[in-house]
Every structure is written in structure tokens, then in C-alpha cells.
Amino acid sequence: MSNPAAERSHFNASRCEACFIRHRGICQALSMEQLERLSSIARRRVIPANHYIFRDGDEAISFAAVNTGVVKLIKTTSEGERHVIGLVYAPEFLGHTFAETHKFSAAAATDVDICTFPRQAFNRLLLEYPDMQRWLFEFTVQELDVTREWTLMLGRKSSFERVASLLLIIARRTRNAGAQPVHENCAEFELPLTRSELADYLGLTLETVSRKVSQLKQQGLIELRSTRDVVVPNIERLAEAASMDEHRESAKAAKVAAFPA
């Protein structure tokens, strides 16, 4: 007589081994035996676009690994204003393991495929597997680094450079998440945010974002197949447009070095 629980565990492990993020994200830190343990507590969920995964203040009863799609993180002020504060792509992790409640809301920006893990069972695995702890620590440090860089960008860059920088980040993260560009220096993606959300995320007005997107299109740095479908013909050119401040500072420093006062 077959053992349904054993069959279910074997199926999940096989599915995990074939999953796109098996050798990326938190799963890359696991041996096959450890992956079976993780898959035994995992629940696969498909979340339609614009549906919430959890809300600010909800009890943090589970965590999630993003397999495909984009999740937007939202913070609501005491006045009821919603602000997008981040984006999560595959194979990134969603949730904070030591928080009793969620400090922000998470909603599907596109259709999203995730694996959720019950908090208590997941934390027990963390205690058993140091490699999982190390990966989670490194991921948290990377999140902090990205936040610091984003804060610096908002403070120093022009509106044109901000829009170019965000599109560059989305292009690179889309490629890292497994979307295949036409060739290695090109990317194509669906914008995970509306124009008004882009404006809010960048600290700009909707009109300014629309103008800067039009300028990027006129300069051949992006192509728009629809209001949300974006093609970046040359990622290096977009990177140059997004980094004008750095290029100016480098040129200024070189000039000072060549012609000291």
C-alpha cells in the first residue's frame, strides 16, 4: 500500500528540483535532502495581479519565495495614502523571519507564483541548517545595500536620471528573474507599476514621469509597445543615461587633476 504523505513529499521535491529558482535564491543553499524537508512544508500559490498576499499589520504566519512574477511592497500612512516602497522579483524572499507582524503590505504587481512556508516550521529548519541562515543573512544585507543606494539616487539624480535608473533596475532584475532578452544587451519587460505608482516611487509628479518617459523614447533608449510593455534596445546606453551624475563627477575630478588650481 502506498504512503500518500511520502508520495506528496517526493512529488514536491521533484517539482522543486525542476523549478527555475532551484539553483538560485534560498533553495540554492540546500542539499537534496534538505530541499525535501523544505518542500514538505511548502505550499504553492498563484496570486493574480492586484491581489494582496498579506497586509500591513497582519500576523506573520508564513514567509514566501517568489518563483515568477513581481510583488510590490506597499506602506499605508495614517492618512490612508498608499505608497509603493519596493519591488520583489524571483528568486527573492518575502517576509521577515523575526517579525511578529508584517510591517508593510505585499500585493501582486503581475500574476505571481510563490511558495509559502509556515513561520514556525521554517524557523525550525533555519536552526537546523546554517547554510539557510547564511543565505538569509546575505539577502538581508543586500536589501539594506539596495535601500541605501536608492536613497542616494533619490537625493542626487535629476528627474530624467531617476526614471532611467528605475527602468534600468527593472530591466536588469527582469533578466535576473529569467526573462530572456532578444540578445544579451537588450531587455523586454512589462512595467510592474502604473505611471502614478512610478511617480510616487520616484518622488516625482505624474506629468514629470510621462515627460521623461517620452524623452527616453525620443532618444531611442526605450521603445514602448504599449503603455506597460517596454523594450530596452541597449542596456549599456540606458545605464549611461541613468548614471549621468557619476559621469559628470568623474569628468570633473579628471579635469581638476589635470588642471589643479
UniProtKB/TrEMBL annotation:
<protein>
    <submittedName>
        <fullName>Transcriptional regulator, Crp/Fnr family</fullName>
    </submittedName>
</protein>
<feature type="domain" description="Cyclic nucleotide-binding">
    <location>
        <begin position="26"/>
        <end position="143"/>
    </location>
</feature>
<dbReference type="GO" id="GO:0003677">
    <property type="term" value="F:DNA binding"/>
</dbReference>
<dbReference type="InterPro" id="IPR050397">
    <property type="entry name" value="Env_Response_Regulators"/>
</dbReference>
<dbReference type="InterPro" id="IPR000595">
    <property type="entry name" value="cNMP-bd_dom"/>
</dbReference>
<dbReference type="Pfam" id="PF13545">
    <property type="entry name" value="HTH_Crp_2"/>
</dbReference>
<keyword id="KW-0804">Transcription</keyword>
<dbReference type="InterPro" id="IPR014710">
    <property type="entry name" value="RmlC-like_jellyroll"/>
</dbReference>
<dbReference type="InterPro" id="IPR012318">
    <property type="entry name" value="HTH_CRP"/>
</dbReference>
<dbReference type="GO" id="GO:0005829">
    <property type="term" value="C:cytosol"/>
</dbReference>
<keyword id="KW-0805">Transcription regulation</keyword>
<dbReference type="InterPro" id="IPR018490">
    <property type="entry name" value="cNMP-bd_dom_sf"/>
</dbReference>
<dbReference type="InterPro" id="IPR018335">
    <property type="entry name" value="Tscrpt_reg_HTH_Crp-type_CS"/>
</dbReference>
<dbReference type="InterPro" id="IPR036390">
    <property type="entry name" value="WH_DNA-bd_sf"/>
</dbReference>
<dbReference type="InterPro" id="IPR036388">
    <property type="entry name" value="WH-like_DNA-bd_sf"/>
</dbReference>
<dbReference type="Pfam" id="PF00027">
    <property type="entry name" value="cNMP_binding"/>
</dbReference>
<feature type="domain" description="HTH crp-type">
    <location>
        <begin position="157"/>
        <end position="236"/>
    </location>
</feature>
<keyword id="KW-0238">DNA-binding</keyword>
<dbReference type="GO" id="GO:0003700">
    <property type="term" value="F:DNA-binding transcription factor activity"/>
</dbReference>
